[in-house]
């Protein structure tokens, strides 16, 4: 007997809409469902985490998840929630992106076991690329009326008077192509449920309509809410753009910081959606958090859990260490443990100056370093005063006016961190 997947989504705040009868249908036996992912980049971002978690909970409830990479649909572009068309990709890029996405999904889904509900990755390019235009309009197009297609919000919004762009025929046919995917998976894999964000409802129900009209079968639809932030800004975006799941695009440190900086209201919502913690664990965390909100128990647990799932325990440990460097009592040894990318992330926006490696061979006098070589302080006099006040640190350790900076002070063979007081940092890059 399968667990109650819908009940799990309900208490987590992950259920927006489901076709009548879906809950009962899923409780009868193991069922197959799919979610589509857009392969226009070789990494997913945290905006994709909700549909990924849908599939993960689905598998944990004993059902069989299919992750569909939209190689064909990625070549067209989905009009839902978009106001412009997208660039089209070549097949080699699509295949590369597909493999990278599968590796990321593997952290959430079991693709490799011989369990009957092991996950399967499919690419709609594999069946759509062989389909001629004439066959498609004859075998699929004739079953859906233009009136039906025009009634969808994703179409209405784009061809309304407010939209200056209009909508191309290519995009107009998108819901038919996505609907055909559902029909194909229904026929080939007995896949009877499609899940996605609430903006996908129109595309999903076109699929259930095709299954009904062409196969005389029944497909089901389920959507999750689109995630918002309580302050109205867009979820999943930081100042630098998307927050990616790929460590090369968004470092584990920045990834960790994104979750750590969540507001109390959002953290309470996100911890249910983006972690596998149980209802009891979460309720107890929320209670603890409300007693001492300044300790940010929810944000810390949220950031810990998501960073470990997407990256690893080691990446989380490094991110926590790196975070302590700015805000905690860390040592020069902690600094020297940072890799270059993390070091630059932690000190992003901190003023920098370059000095030549040759100067370090003989050792650089600290007063010259603070003023003349870097301009961190305005003059030698100011540098002397600051040293006398014991407010200057090199790599987090206090120094006096006789200190010389040499090769031993280098972090990653290229950086030295100067600090005045608690908050003023300066990075020397040795070239």
From TrEMBL:
Record-given protein name: Tyrosine--tRNA ligase
GO terms of molecular function: ATP binding; protein homodimerization activity; RNA binding; tyrosine-tRNA ligase activity
Keyword Kinase: no
Catalytic activity: tRNA(Tyr) + L-tyrosine + ATP = L-tyrosyl-tRNA(Tyr) + AMP + diphosphate + H(+)
Subcellular compartments: Cytoplasm
Domain Tyrosine--tRNA ligase SYY-like C-terminal intervals: 345-428
GO cellular component: a single term: cytosol
Oligomeric and partner information: Homodimer.
PROSITE patterns: AA_TRNA_LIGASE_I (PS00178), S4 (PS50889)
Keyword Chloroplast: no
Membrane-spanning segments: none
Chief location bin: cytoplasm
UniProt short sequence motif 'HIGH' region, positions renumbered to this chain: 39-48
Keywords linked to the UniProt accession: Aminoacyl-tRNA synthetase, ATP-binding, Cytoplasm, Ligase, Nucleotide-binding, Protein biosynthesis, RNA-binding
Motif ('KMSKS' region): 234-238
Organism: Aquimarina algicola
Family recorded in the similarity comment: Belongs to the class-I aminoacyl-tRNA synthetase family. TyrS type 1 subfamily.
GO biological process, one term: tyrosyl-tRNA aminoacylation
EC number: 6.1.1.1
Binding site for ATP: 237
Gene that produces this protein: tyrS
